[in-house]
Amino acid sequence: MNGFDVLAFGNALVDILSHEDDEVIIRTGVERGAMTLVDGTRADEIYAAMSPTTEVSGGSAANTAAGIASFGGRAAFIGRIADDTFGHIFAHDLRSAGVHFDPPLPPPGEPTGRCLVMVTPDAQRTLCTHLGTGADLDPSYVDEGLVALSALTYLEGYLWDQAPAKDAIRRACALARDNGRRVAFTLSDPFCVDRNRAEFVHLAEHEIDVLFANEDEITSLYAVDRFDEALQHVRGHCEIAVLTRGPLGAVIVAGDELHVIDPVPTEVVDTTGAGDLFAAGFLFGLTNGWPHEVSGRLGAIAAAEVISHLGARPAVSLADLAAPVLG
Asked: What is the full DSSP assignment across 236-301?
């Protein structure tokens, strides 16, 4: 098996997307613009209230892996699926995108996870996630060989809400360090940060080389009101911090370096996956030796592409879009 640029570790989910107005969000009683974990019964209730849907494979870290492959990078993914229809769809879609994915299938039990994504007219997305068998992701799924073969291991903050997956993240971090590899971590969601603030701060200070966060997540992490305050806090806590700001672009902090990345203009249809694909562009650039500023521009290109259509994975070749930048 050849080496990989990035090994992504996260929830394996099939996204079920629909366009909804705010009345549906209110009626279902979910937190607008956030990710809420739900059980199977609650997921069925919300699904019944949704308009006609589109099903596409998703999951934050899996989206990032697919984006890296679309740039021409070498990506692998670790996640837990069931031997069911959604599991087969997820595996097929990820492998078809060029990502290495070869999971052991668990015995019959919980189904493959699904994420109900309601997109409102302002392109904001509200997520309701039933993890299914993904909730049982544990350290046995951490493939030491894959970690050793990968220049960087990318870990999804959403996993931290599940105790077995938290142990898996700790094992992946330790294996990466033992093999002289880098570790990247995404904070995933401000409510996820609120639930795990102290542990996430510890990760940023002691375990993580590259931290990804949006503006709400990084201000929540340090319990401050202003982005500039959060930026000063994170500056000394990890090697690189990649902080996305939606229509304001992004800021990359690496020691004394600070790069402001302008957004790439596009028509916004669905913001699902914007952060995942920004991470894909940056990690592709980082692991292939490009400067941080160029890597940030690749992230902006990928984010602009994915928000221009429904769904959280690229619809066109990111390598083609990046060619003018990489020249």
From this structure: TTSSEEEEE-GGG-EEEEETTEEEEEPPPP---S--TTHHHHHHHHHHHHHHTT--HHHHHHHHHH
